[in-house]
Design brief:
Number of domains: 2
Strand order of the largest sheet: 14-13-10-6-5-18-19-20
Distance between the termini: 37 Å
Number of strands: 20
Helix content: 25-40%
Radius of gyration: 20 Å
Length: 375
């Protein structure tokens, strides 16, 4: 375990999470150019990650931002300023060996009243950076991981006290255990058995109270997400054949994108595209996101959550999509590593529960029912 220099109140779990990220998730090696990016609210974790990278022999490069900077850009910038990006951003993602993104927020709703069209324009303007990032991560050239730091704002969003939310986060990451690295290795092995079983399957059928959906996964690869890219992690996923999605799905939980919460989302797919979209709250924003570009209304990901330590809904899809007993689907950008070819400035994960009788079959064989694997 690394030192706890700078850890507030002596909370060794922060240093433990940093150690897990640096030495398990991305495995920083001597000489690795390691980009560490995060919000100032995550500074305690950023400091520990910086220290862990140094101790591993890497070269840490830290970038900080905050809610006010994002808010000012989206509200005050001209269209030309919104679509511009610093050339150094492209240089970083073209050259870095490792990217560690540490997410935190002082106000999770800071962007609620920002015009969604301006948010979309900003994302479109950064397309070259996104494409470089996805190309290098999909090829394995850029090792990466994203993690959350528990803040009061996130705790309030999850309707927990800060102490409860910290326990929720660190439990989900398994850093409250004697051997977090070993526990993640064990989960990864169990998930690999499932992805191995699925690798030659062609059609996925998902049915239940919340969905009736058919997807082709012919020729696609199932990915075992065992803690190397997200922390916490715990899912298996693929990118469906882009023109294959047929049917409908209602998402049990609110989806949050760019600081906006959208509730009661229902989507209908035909020939792979969303042909009908509605929401009980935030429908206008939902439709704006679907219209970002030609790929934003296509399913870029289908996944099954496996992390039983994520025991409750938090309002943050980063945790909620990993929840054992759920599935999630992402609108927009697909994964090249899974065989996906859909391109989009959007990648928006939406989660629905399967524990109330949901079933998944692969080529007609039942392998998942009511939140549990049957193989």
């Amino acid at each position: 375990m690394i030192q706890t220099v700078g850890t507030p109140l002596g909370d060794s779990r922060i240093a433990g999470l940093a150690d897990l990220l640096v030495n398990y998730s991305v495995r920083v090696r001597v000489g690795d150019w390691t980009l560490v990016s995060g919000d100032v609210s995550a500074l305690p974790l950023i400091r520990e990650v910086h220290l862990a990278v140094l101790q591993a022999g890497g070269h840490p490069h830290v970038r900080l931002t905050d809610d006010r900077l994002k808010q000012d850009l989206l509200r005050q910038a001209t269209d030309e300023q919104l679509t511009w990006f610093p050339p150094t951003d492209l240089t970083l993602f073209q050259g870095a060996d490792v990217f560690i993104s540490l997410v935190g927020s002082q106000n999770t709703r800071a962007l609620t009243y920002v015009d969604p069209a301006r948010q979309a324009l900003h994302r479109v303007g950064r397309r070259e950076v996104f494409e470089t990032y996805f190309r290098r991560t999909d090829s394995g050239e850029l090792r990466w991981v994203i993690a959350r730091f528990p803040t009061m704002a996130s705790a309030q969003e999850a309707e927990m006290s800060l102490a409860e939310y910290e326990e929720f986060v660190y439990q989900a990451c398994k850093v409250d255990r004697p051997d977090p690295n070993g526990d993640w290795e064990d989960l990864s092995r169990r998930q690999q058995a499932i992805t191995d079983w699925l690798k030659d399957k062609n059609e996925i059928r998902v049915t239940g109270p919340n969905c009736d959906l058919r997807l082709s996964v012919a020729g696609r690869t199932w990915i075992n997400a065992g803690g190397h890219n997200n922390m916490p992690d715990g899912e298996i996923f693929t990118s469906p054949v882009e023109d294959s999605a047929e049917g409908w799905v209602e998402f049990s939980y609110p989806g949050v994108q760019a600081g906006r919460a959208v509730e009661g989302v229902r989507l209908t797919f035909a020939e792979g595209k969303v042909i009908e979209a509605s929401a009980a709250k935030g429908e206008a924003f939902l439709k704006t996101q679907l219209a970002i570009d030609s790929g934003s209304n296509v399913m870029g990901e289908f996944a099954i959550g496996t992390n039983d330590e994520v025991a409750r809904f938090s309002g943050d899809a980063f945790f909620d999509e990993k929840m054992g007993g759920t599935i999630h689907m992402a609108l927009g950008q697909g994964f090249e590593e899974a065989g996906g070819v859909n391109k989009s400035a959007l990648h928006w994960d939406l989660v629905t529960d399967m524990r109330d009788g949901g079933r998944i079959t692969a080529d007609g064989k039942l392998f998942y029912e009511s939140g549990a694997f049957k193989i």
